[in-house]
């Protein structure tokens, strides 16, 4: 959200790293937040100062962060609380540093991979719009007599503007439609389940969600959290309502004495091979360690599938632009040939 107070990934990483090192070196929790208030990330310095004041007044870190919950993701607050209650704050903030470093890496990689298809689409659209304007100039600005290059009755400057605004409106409309179904009509789980089923983009979104789940699952399993908190936070960290919608069913099965492998199987978005790996981890008693390897596996898979998504997006953009250009070329050629035929007659 544009006007959200939520701290950025670099700020969360900076906080986690500073708290991990200062507390690990024996510095008190209040002093650690005083350091963050003066040398920490700029966007959170005021918050750090307020939390330090609250701790000085006798409040816990949990109470202090609860007052400024809008600045922190739920996972960050919950893990800080677990660390404080268990006396493992340095370790917990060390895990949070790794987690948000991974999230930042995935986000930057996505932006890097998607920027060229987006630029190609913008350049291609501008070329088509420019062609409409140039063909109008050839007719001394008389748009009614100008060649319609793509067959939609769009000519000249006005046609170019309509073409460009229509493209922008299409994407804005898709976004607003998505917001309508996910926020207003509460159909987020159904919409995101549909996205997971789409070719190219679905596998990419799925592997990123699995990477996040494995990372959070491992962190929470290593904490003193109850199994319902482990499930709730791990599913929430995927960022997908499709995953999150199964938390009640999974928790219910765990309450009935089922193992994680059986409980997670009620969610159709967990691959069979992943569930078998969870079963092996439960039998061997090494589920957190196995989740470390699964996190790395899905990180590599998400990187590979983002590259595939980028290639598919690039091909789609090129086909779209080439189709419009070919239509324009044939339209111009046919008008030119008809003109020559009329002269010859």
Mean pLDDT: 83
Number of discrete helical segments: 15
Compute the separation of the termini in Å: 65 Å
* E-strand count: 0
Output the structural class.
mainly alpha
The radius of gyration computed from the alpha-carbon positions, rounded to a whole number of angstroms, is: 27 Å
Share in helix = over 70%
What is the H-and-E element order? HHHHHHHHHHHHHHH
Number of domains: 2
Query: Looking at the structure, what is the overall shape?
Result: elongated
Low-confidence stretches: none
Give the amount of beta strand, in percent. under 5%
Main sheet specs: none
How would you describe this structure to a colleague?
Helix 1 packs across helix 2 and helix 6 runs antiparallel to helix 9. Helices cover 77% and strands 0% of the residues. The chain has 15 helices and no strands. The chain has 2 domains: 64 residues, no CATH class; 252 residues, no CATH class. The chain has 345 residues and is mainly α. The N and C termini lie far apart (65 Å).
């Amino acid at each position: 959200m544009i006007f959200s107070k939520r701290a950025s990934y670099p700020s969360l990483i900076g906080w986690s790293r500073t708290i991990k090192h200062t507390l690990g070196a024996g510095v008190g929790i209040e002093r650690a937040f005083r350091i963050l208030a003066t040398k920490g990330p700029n966007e959170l310095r005021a918050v750090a100062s307020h939390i330090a004041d609250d701790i000085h007044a006798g409040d816990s870190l949990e109470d202090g962060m609860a007052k400024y919950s809008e600045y922190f993701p739920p996972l960050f607050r919950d893990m800080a609380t677990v660390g404080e209650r268990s006396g493992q704050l340095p370790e917990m903030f060390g895990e949070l540093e790794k987690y948000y470093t991974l999230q930042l890496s995935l986000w930057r990689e996505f932006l890097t991979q998607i920027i060229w298809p987006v630029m190609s689409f913008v350049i291609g659209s501008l070329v088509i719009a420019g062609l409409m304007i140039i063909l109008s100039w050839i007719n001394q600005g008389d748009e009614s007599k100008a060649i319609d290059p793509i067959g939609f009755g769009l000519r000249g400057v006005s046609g170019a503007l309509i073409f460009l605004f229509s493209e922008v409106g299409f994407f804005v409309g898709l976004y607003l439609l998505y917001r309508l179904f996910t926020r207003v009509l509460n159909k987020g789980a159904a919409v995101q389940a549909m996205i997971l089923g789409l070719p190219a983009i679905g596998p990419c979104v799925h592997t990123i969600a699995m990477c996040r789940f494995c990372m959070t699952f491992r962190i929470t399993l290593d904490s003193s959290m109850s199994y319902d908190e482990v499930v709730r936070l791990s599913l929430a960290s995927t960022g997908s309502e499709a995953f999150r919608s199964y938390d009640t069913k999974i928790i219910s099965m765990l309450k009935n004495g089922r193992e994680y492998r059986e409980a997670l199987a009620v969610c159709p978005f967990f691959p069979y091979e992943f569930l078998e790996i969870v079963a092996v981890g439960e039998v061997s008693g090494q589920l957190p360690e196995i989740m470390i390897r699964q996190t790395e596996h899905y990180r590599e898979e998400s990187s590979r599938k983002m590259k595939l998504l980028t290639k598919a997006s690039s091909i789609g953009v090129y086909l779209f632009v080439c189709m419009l250009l070919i239509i324009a070329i044939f339209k111009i050629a046919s008008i030119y040939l008809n003109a020559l035929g009329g002269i010859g007659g």
